Amino acid sequence: MTGDTGLIAVTGATGFVGRALLSEAGSQGIATRALTRRDQPLRQGVDWVRGDLADRQALARLVKGAEAVIHVAGVVNAPDAAGFEAGNVTGTLEVVEAAARAGVPRFIHVSSLAAREPKLSTYGASKLRAEKIVAASGLDWTAVRPPAVYGPWDTELFELFRAAKWGAVPMPQEGRSSLIHSADLARLLLALVPSGEDVTQMIFEPDDGRAAGWGHRELARAIGWAMKRRIWIPQLSKDMLLRAAKLDRMLRGAKAKLTTDRVNYMTHPDWVCAPQKAPPTGRWAPQIDTREGLKATAAWYRQQGWL
Fold first, then answer.
1. CA-to-CA distance for 245 and 260, rounded, in angstroms?
2. Domains of the chain with CATH codes
3. Both ends of the chain: CA-CA distance in Å?
4. Shortest CA distance to 177 belongs to which of 291, 272, 111?
5. How many Å apart are CA 38 and CA 18, to the nearest integer?
């Protein structure tokens, strides 16, 4: 991929993955037009469009003349089903329709591995419905189902880093999951922009290259190593996690990170990416070793004063 790629329209550009995507696009000399709810500082190569997923005029400005739309925006945590429906389902429909009206040649949709198990969580069900909207759109599309994503600006796995600072990283009981660094995911999204039979109308599950994923205790120990701390790893039952979620809701209200929906997701034993759904190696391969990536992420959190 080079600067030969045309204009890319991006939703979710001010979020965790979106920031990594804009950074990677900038390093590759790819111009982007990015949706934002709030005014943003000037940034070379980025044309900001003020609006949100419910603003059809803003979406029309966003996608006009774009070579591709990369739809990153979505809701990971919500206090109720309506929040997931609005952010993940209705929002995706609006972006798809805007792209179709504008005749955008390519649509890259960021879904989630949670879509594999829609009965487990409201979040996963909403991401699957969004995928179905994209698949029925008539667009030239590709969907990406990332596993747990970590890296600078992440506020989800950050909770584990913060726990490690105090010497204990609570984890669910037995299970495994895949990981991917946000920079590797950003490179993949851009590598998928050119159309082709190897990517069109396909769903990919990218990861860090660790074939069997990470056991919960392995991941906790890796985060402890990244934080330079010896840690205790209490493994909590689903009932204990549900009680913790209730407490988190009491303490942080709608901003709670550990929700009932999240517990249902976390306690599923298999969130390892399927090897047969890996992206084509001719386009992309992970570059960031996860242990080193976790170490660099911990350093970033410290530099930002998060830890």
1. 6
2. 8-149+180-208+273-287 (3.40.50.720)
3. 36
4. 272
5. 15
Distance CA 90, CA 126 (A): 10
Q: Confidence class of residue 286 from pLDDT cuts 50, 70 and 90?
A: very high
> Are residues 120 and 262 in contact, defined by beta-carbon separation less than 8 angstroms?
no
Output DSSP code: residue 238. Answer: H
**What SS3 state is found at 16?**
helix
CA torsion 91→95→96→100, rounded to 10°? Answer: 150
> For residue 223, what are its two tokens?
């985060």
pLDDT in tens, 202-251: 999 999 999 999 999 999 999 999 999 999 999 888 888 888 878 877 87
Q: If you compute the radius of gyration of the chain from its CA atoms, what whole number of angstroms results?
A: 19
DSSP label at residue 232 = B
* Residue 114, both tokens: 């949670």
Are 64 and 100 spatial neighbours (Cβ–Cβ below 8 Å)?
Answer: no
Range 184-196 burial, b when 16+ CB lie within 10 A, else e = bbbbbbbbbbeee
Kind and range of the H or E run holding 128: helix 122-135
Residue 245: name the closest of 153, 145, 121 by CA: 121
Are 291 and 226 in contact, with CB atoms under 8 Å apart? yes
Tens-digit pLDDT profile for residues 7-37: 999 999 999 999 999 999 999 999 999 999 9
Contact 222, 291 (CB under 8 A): yes
Instruction: Please report the pLDDT score of residue 3 as a whole number.
Output: 41
Amino acid, res. 215: G
**Looking up tokens 């249902």, which residue turns up?**
264
- Pick the closest to residue 95 from 33, 19, 21 (CA basis): 33
**281 CB burial (10 A radius; 0-12, 13-18, 19+):** exposed
